[in-house]
Amino acid sequence: MKLYPVKVLLLVAMTTTLLFAFSSATWQSKFLKVNADGSITYFPDEQGNTIPDFSRVGYHHGDKAIPDVKVVKTITAPTSGDSEKLIQQAIDEVAKLKPNSMGHRGAILLKKRTYKIPGVIKINASGIVLRGEKGTVFVASGKVKRNLIVVAGAGDVKEVNGTRVKIADDYVPVGAKSFKVKSAKAYQVGDDIIVYRPATTNWIADLKMDKIVPKSDTRQWDTQTYNFPFERKITKIEGNTIFIDNPIVMAMETQYGGGEVYKYTFAGRIKEVGIENLEIQSEYANDTDEEHGWVAVQFNKVENAWARNIVSKYFGYSCVSLERGAKKVTVIDSKCLDGKSQITGGRRYSFNNVGQQNLFMNLETTEGRHDYVTAAQVLGPNVFYNCKASKTHSDIGPHHRWTMGTLYDNVVTDGQINVQDRGNSGTGHGWAGVNQVFWNCRAKEITLQNPYVSGKNYAIGVIADKRINTKLGDRPDGEWEGQNKEGLQPSSLYLAQLNARKKLK
């Protein structure tokens, strides 16, 4: 038998102890497991629901890097006066260029200078990038409330006549990427479809959203407002089973009207637009002034677009706001600093999302209210990853009226992160969201409630005090796991899901 020196034995013992201590200090969720090969196993509940795969969000669903588009025009601000006409003329000229094979017309480089803009800069064509140098500053000048840079296409979703079919399954669970329809004959791989979840009176009644305690401006929920058209693409068809690119983020339930599918077009939606490397400031009269710049960069009716390296200062509402027609947009490496407005409702939504399949990543805010936030009836999946907020004046999370399928991953705040029944706040916010996941987040306090029906909310590995909001009476508790327990693995759910998906290719 071979004898080993005492030092070697001690080293082995110490190494074994350290490895054991490391392994015992880390843990995985009961809802999913990352396997040795990087794949993920999801553990369904009694109805088959799982935490959704959030990996297909942002620019080209994360399958392509944001490009460095070639500069086709360079401009420098005049030494005095405003620069609005100069910039808008350059955008309009580039809009007339023929796009290349990637759909890019070209980048407009704004040389290091201060550019005063008394009105609005508009981008209404695909393939245009507005890019600054280090030291390029836009200033929303004057005393007019408006959005400074507006990226927007035209039109809306249009149903293709004769393609609507019923979903045949009695229940399609959260996390599912396939389901049966009555007939798939009208469909083929690559079709853009709407997965439609209708509202019904019994669903609203079971949520008790027809009995919100009234005040003068309270609106009870209704079946006209709460129909949900999720945009998806068909990836495979087997018989009458359709497979889709992004998961179901709200269960399709026969008892609440089931679901339907139809093809759609969105002819006016633009794509491949980027706003890059800009400091954007607003002039203001005082800390509560509201007659000045409101949103620094707004996207609507656009897909496969991006905003990166944007720093906004002194705006009343947002650094970047993605409206309902914004899809597959990445907002990355940006900051919203020192908002100027009254500190009350409808102000300081630092990074705001109303669209679907969008990614917000590596962001910072100060003096915001709802720093990383979704509005009403927001259709997931959407992700906020690696975001920080300080000097906050309100909470992070779904703000009102049933947002579905959002991941808050490594979000850190000195304030609150909440998903709850907001009752008659505002004009009757009610249940703020469902299938919301707080993963490895840090906050002063977290409120987490499950709605009465149609889904759950999760706080996994959060470092925060549990806030019990009894203002409206008892509500079902959310799904808590590992509260104030360090060592959650994977540390980022979004990155683990993205890695797992790319390994499958």
Word description of this protein:
The protein is mainly β and 505 residues long. Among the domains are: 158-265, Thrombin, subunit H (Beta Barrel); 394-505, no CATH class. Helix content is 10%, strand content 38%. A hairpin with a 5-residue loop joins strand 1 (32-34) and strand 2. The longest helix has 20 residues, at 6-25. It starts with 5 loop residues before the first helix and ends with a helix. Mean pLDDT is 94; it is low at 1-23. This is Pectate lyase. Keywords: Signal. InterPro entries: Pectin_lyase_fold/virulence.
SSE blueprint and pairings:
Blueprint: H1 6-25, E1 32-34, E2 40-42, E3 71-75, H2 84-94, E4 106-110, E5 114-117, E6 121-123, E7 128-132, E8 137-140, E9 146-152, E10 158-159, E11 165-166, E12 171-172, E13 178-180, E14 192-197, H3 201-206, E15 228-238, E16 241-244, E17 252-253, E18 260-265, E19 270-271, E20 274-282, E21 293-300, E22 302-313, E23 318-322, E24 326-337, E25 351-353, E26 359-366, E27 372-374, E28 379-390, E29 395-398, E30 403-413, E31 416-419, E32 433-439, E33 442-448, E34 458-460, E35 463-466, E36 479-481, H4 493-504
Parallel strand pairs: 3-4, 4-7, 5-8, 6-9, 7-20, 8-20, 9-21, 19-22, 20-22, 21-23, 22-24, 23-25, 24-26, 25-27, 26-28, 27-29, 28-30, 29-31, 30-32, 31-33, 32-34, 33-35, 34-36
Antiparallel strand pairs: 1-2, 10-18, 11-18, 12-17, 13-16, 14-15, 14-18, 15-16
Signal peptide: 1-21
Organism: Pedobacter aquae
Protein name: Pectate lyase
Specify the biggest β-sheet. 15 strands, parallel
Distance between the termini: 49 Å
As a percent range, the share of helical residues equals under 10%
Radius of gyration: 24 Å
> Which percent range describes the beta-strand content?
35-45%
Morphology: globular
Structure class: mainly beta
User: What is the tally of helical segments?
Assistant: 4
- Residue runs with pLDDT of under 50 for 5 or more positions: 1-23
How many beta-strand elements?
36
Oligomer: single chain
Give the averaged pLDDT, no decimals: 94
Protein name: Pectate lyase
Signal peptide: 1-21
Keywords: Signal
Organism: Pedobacter aquae
